[in-house]
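Revision sheet: structure tokens.
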Amino acid sequence: MTTAPFDAMGGVGESLPSLGCQTSSPEEQRIEDLYLAWQESLRGLTADASALAHWQERRNRFAYRVRRALLTAPFAGSSGVMGPVIYGIYTAAGLCYIGQTHEAERRLGDLPVGESHHVSNTLPPELWDRVVVLRWPALLLGIPDNERATTEEIGPEVCGLALEHALQAATRPLLNLRRRDRDGEWRVRDLSRSRSRGALQAARLPRLCGIASATWQELASVQVPDEEFIWDTQAGRVVLPSRISRTAS
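Predicted:
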């Protein structure tokens, strides 16, 4: 059995094998070998009580350093991250996930810790190269009066959903393009046909969606100075967990 067609670049292509299928290509065999090596590595890290405790403490120190970097004021005169934001996770494969919340202090706080956020179950924070956080309310001054009235009409929660949809449709992160059904199979999501609240309202906010997309790209491509792992502006924040990991032991 195969899932709906999907390829690694975010488009429709050859079918992916479902779990349980025999590997049939060199690439699938390479992934299988890496997966087994990963399992073996974890067995070594949890081989006895002492190793397990050290592994748990090491991961906890790292996760909470990332948490602090995402939320707290990085220097005097700056502000922490609170309220409505759009956030995205980049790995070596590029942008993998975009989400939104109207309560950053809770949702972003849990993002690397993984107590309730599903992303860390698939992509452990040790794999994250960059997290982009967009403080989208800071962009409202740049939109026309009629769009600002629309944001007030629909409220911050739905406005965040609209921006989340617009950015997902524009950037096509892999983890947003597939949904798991009750049988554990992956199905492709066609964002262009979505009738969600976010999709319906995004069409009413073209200027805000455009500014959000441009600001996102700026944050995604900013060059953070060597030895730093936070880049903070009024409109957003960039955190580099890959750099934090080097100093979390």
